[in-house]
Known about the structure:
Structural class: alpha+beta
Oligomer: single chain
Amino acid sequence: MSDAQTCNPGFLCQGEHExxxxxxxxxxGDTLYELFVSKCADCGGPIxxxxxxxxxxxxxxxxxxxxxxxxxxxxxxxxxxFATDVETKLVQLQNTVAEFNSRGLFEAEGVDVFHxxxxxxxxxxxxxxxxxxxxxxxxxxSDNTDDDVVAAFLLGCLATENYWIETHQxxxxxxxxxxxxxxxxxxxxxxxxxxxGKRTRRAVMAAAxxxxxxxxxxxxNDSKTASLIEAMRLEPxxxxxGTYLGCEAIIKHLxxxxxGGTPLGNTQ
Length: 268
């Protein structure tokens, strides 16, 4: 775990990551390891994440200060064991469920039906596993192939990873080449995506503020607000393919802005 746990003890730090930088790289055959370091905007602690890339397969591991001090040994052991980033996958899923359920109800208006059903099913399983201790059992020893419960979950991760590589690897490579450019490199492309994301959020916030000035009761109805913004067909929300940012993405921007303390419209 990271040093920065004060904002959400027991889980990966949930703060906004500032000024992420690559501090270390190593390559083992066809597998690349990169250490990304950033600072948590909530608690101020360092966030150290190790990215493992092999073809279209990407795994992320948040590491402790102790592992950071012995980084080469940590990576060698990780590469030898071929451990899967189970904790990262589960925590990301928990965060998505929490986002859908942020106000005590499962808000689904304006979201694709398939995505809603997928997350709702995950929510039910996570809840049951958390109550009977199976979730912590998986997290505590996520690479134990002798434990049938843990091994079954791990097998599902591996099956998904294999399907992803077999089905999408070529498209992923072509996408990266198109978006990043052959010579620009991943850090520059990431910075460009972050800048675009900030511009998009500013446009969403500006549109939401105008809506709230006329209909203040919508300040707590992100789905309806997002539908109205989508219908505006705002130029800053136009994507490269000519389509516009959809409701689901707009809802995420609204919630992120609110969670980050950004005022949306006048308070009543």
